Amino acid sequence: MVAGGRRVAVVGVALSDCGRVDDATAYALHAQAARRALADAGLDRSRVDGFASAGLGTLAPVEVADYLGLRPTWVDSTSVGGATWEVMAAHAADAIATGHANAVLLVYGSTARADIRAGRRTGTFAFGGGGPLQFEVPYGHTLVAKYAMAARRHMLQFGTTIEQLAQIAVQARANAALNPEAMFRDPVTVDDVLSGPMIADPFTKLHCCLRSDGGAAVLLAAEEYVRDCRTAPVWVLGTGEHVSHASLSEWEDFTVSPAAVSGRLAFARAGVRADEMDFAEIYDAFTYMTLVTLEDLGFCAKGEGGAFVEKGRLLVAGGELPVNTDGGGLSAQHPGMRGLFLLVEAVRQLRGEAGERQVRRPDGELPRLGVASGTGGWFCSSGTVVLGRE
User: Fold this and answer.
1) For residues 44-54, b (16+ Cβ closer than 10 Å) or e, as one string?
2) How high is the pLDDT of residue 132?
3) pLDDT at position 255
């Protein structure tokens, strides 16, 4: 990560209970994921000197660290929506590489679904009406509407079809069918996607992520810690981050996401190309996010995403580029800021721990390179992490 610095590895990953979890608090899901990640690594929590958290409490890293019994000397509370965890992983890797921390724990947990069912909160359709957002609120620009408008622009400009976008949901569900932890596993067809209730034109229900409960944790550590871990290291090879706009009026091009910058930086710093990736874990709150991120990471040219996602290219079983191998936010789980789940799945794939959904290279070997790319807000932020194994 840094010239002359230490190499950084992911040494522990875990999910908490996910899906429908009615009997746990968000704090408890944080703790469950954290304990499981430490057990996965085989490291005692006393060796964790860095901590990153966002989205819970008034002072997220302080309150959650206290709940977990941690007293870190390096903390991060970066909050940029769904891309938060890829950006945090980049910050943590830099801190470890330069010696400011040795082992950094990233943790997230949310009871978004259970809270709505219990009447503790309502569905979130907007991020508020303050600051620059105040000029859009009167026009009804909800979060989903912003993504829907961007999708319409891509369709108009490049001829992308709603059937092509629906293929992303269909293939995500097919991957989820191989994942026993996925919330929805029954197959769906393009017709099923198109005939669902309209949420925001052109998005019907199955174009949109599900709402679940759940948590995740990732432990990154310096290379000298690897020998004490029970798992094979997955190395952080390169990272990139980018923020592009706050309001839609400042977004220069609805067909270009901030992953165009974060991906270019991550691949360049890792010294690899997009076409060397064995799989990709991409934030998919909506089908269009997957399509445009594939373009912006360089897996296909701008405007060719619609054609690229056809014919099963994203499938674990036989796909040229398996994408969202666990089923993604469209079918597996989506408790809010889902970026940390992308990193967990990428590490499991590289370790060969994904079971029936395990990706294999054409020669039958385990994957060697993978990328996780998170998107935040309404295409406002992006973090991309390239991971690899020896």
Assistant:
1) eeeebbbbbbb
2) 80
3) 97
